[in-house]
Design brief:
The chain is α/β, with parallel strands linked by helices. The protein has one domain: TIM Barrel (Alpha-Beta Barrel). 47% of the residues lie in helices and 11% in strands. The chain has helices at residues 7-16, 36-42, 47-52, 54-68, 81-84, 105-109, 116-119, 121-134, 148-157, 167-175, 177-200, 218-224, 226-235, 254-258, 273-280, 299-313, 333-344, and strands spanning 73-74, 90-92, 96-98, 141-146, 205-209, 243-246, 264-266, 285-290, 319-323. The protein is globular and about 55 Å long. Bound molecules: coproporphyrinogen I (1CP). Residues 28-33, 42, 47, 74, 76-79, 92, 94-96, 144, 160, 209, 211, 248, 326 line the site of coproporphyrinogen I.
């Protein structure tokens, strides 16, 4: 029966499309600047130093459990941590800034494919400590990585694009497709080893963040992204950890992303979740998709939206309640708490 599920069972079952009492809930960027206790612990410490500081990273990862009652923990780090492990010089200000943006073959060939357990050992120490903390409470631990295309957007451009156009990587696809392909393949290779090492260290599900995949058309996605994500899906120890695939603004990619072999498709707020459930919900579970901006609205609004989203997603084989993108720094803590409480109050369905 599904009546007495603990949070780990609830999340893993929802990911795999098995019956649950209600959707599990967590939030992307649930550890971060909207929490005063995060800002206090982060004060004066550079972001990458924080990612390497096992004690602090463990504490920050756990903060949203007590602050807002989230039902899963994602370890505190960033998608660029393993990229630094490949030998790329970068800093955070506050997003990633690449010292020498990748434009030449020699730079791709120089990307090291070393064992991440040697290049970024602290990541796995953080995961092992978190798993030991969480296991007695039966809260699940999530691992994550950046998808090759999204990492390449930053690596080629050199930094984030406030206008979200990423013209430099798109130009590279046109002007030197072999170079872009080599870069994507190298990143996919690294990602498989990195995520499997996270699973070995205790991650119980893993999410691949392909934030900017929606920049491509479905045809371009098939050519440039799908082969790499499929390789990752095939290379992961999926028997030990389901695979969640996220894109932030990609309603046109729902079908093709569901062909990747993922267990869960995490959709942005611009994708209609009822329609996604109808189109692909028999094959994959869905995750999402409240607009993070709505967390600033009154508590009753958040409750009503959570009920609407859960009802709209119900025809899918499984649903994990989450946002359509990460919590922003200006979000009120009460809004995040209301979201989690609303999810927990959903009637068994
Ligand atoms: O304190 C600070 O100012 C640092 C802000 C910050 C935080 C809290 C950054 C810099 N990264 C993170 C943590 C982070 N990043 C997590 C931790 C786990 C969680 O609580 O969710 C995760 C999963 C990420 C993933 C990430 N980093 C993505 C994919 C998801 C997304 O939000 O789209 C991307 C694109 C990044 C790059 C990045 N790192 C940081 C920033 C501000 C950015 C975005 C830069 C930009 O696009 O301009």
């Amino acid at each position: 029966m599904s009546a007495s599920l603990d949070p780990t069972q609830r999340l893993l079952r929802a990911c795999r499309g098995e019956p649950v009492d209600r959707p599990p809930v967590w939030l992307m960027r649930q550890a971060g600047r909207y929490l005063p206790e995060y800002r206090a612990l982060r004060a004066g410490i550079p972001f990458l130093a924080m990612c390497r500081d096992v004690e602090r990273a463990v504490e920050v990862s756990l903060q949203p459990v007590s602050a807002v009652g989230t039902e899963a923990v994602i370890f505190f780090s960033d998608i660029f941590v393993p990229v630094a492990g490949m030998g790329v010089a970068l800093e955070f200000a506050p997003g990633p800034v690449i010292a020498d943006p990748i434009r030449r073959t020699a730079q791709v060939e120089a990307l090291a494919l070393a064992d991440p357990r040697e290049t970024v050992p602290y990541v796995f120490e953080i995961l092992r400590r978190l798993r030991a903390e969480l296991e007695p409470r039966r809260l699940p631990l999530l691992g994550f990585a950046g998808a090759p295309f999204t990492l390449a957007c930053y690596l080629v451009r050199g930094k984030g694009d406030p206008e979200r156009r990423y013209e430099e990587p798109r130009a590279l696809m046109r002007d030197d497709p072999a170079l872009m392909r080599a870069l994507l393949e190298r990143l996919a290779e690294m990602t498989i080893g990195y995520l499997n090492a996270q699973i070995e260290a205790g991650a119980q599900a893993v999410q691949l963040f392909d934030t900017w995949a929606g920049l491509l058309s479905e045809t371009e996605y098939r050519e440039w992204i799908l082969p790499g994500v499929r390789r990752i899906a095939e290379g992961l120890r999926r028997d030990q950890a389901p695979f969640i695939l996220f894109a932030s603004d990609a309603p046109h990619l729902v079908e093709v992303m569901a062909e990747s072999g993922c267990d869960v498709l995490s959709i942005g707020a611009s994708t209609d979740i009822a329609e996604a459930a109808r189109r692909v919900g028999g094959r994959v579970s869905l995750q999402g998709n409240l607009d993070p901006a709505e967390l600033a609205r009154p508590r009753e609004h958040v409750f009503a939206r959570v009920r609407e989203i859960a009802a709209a997603a119900a025809p899918a084989r499984g649903h994990v309640l989450n946002l359509g993108h990460g919590v922003t720094p200006e979000t009120p803590v009460e809004g995040v708490r209301a979201f989690v409480e609303a999810a927990k109050s959903l009637a068994p369905g």
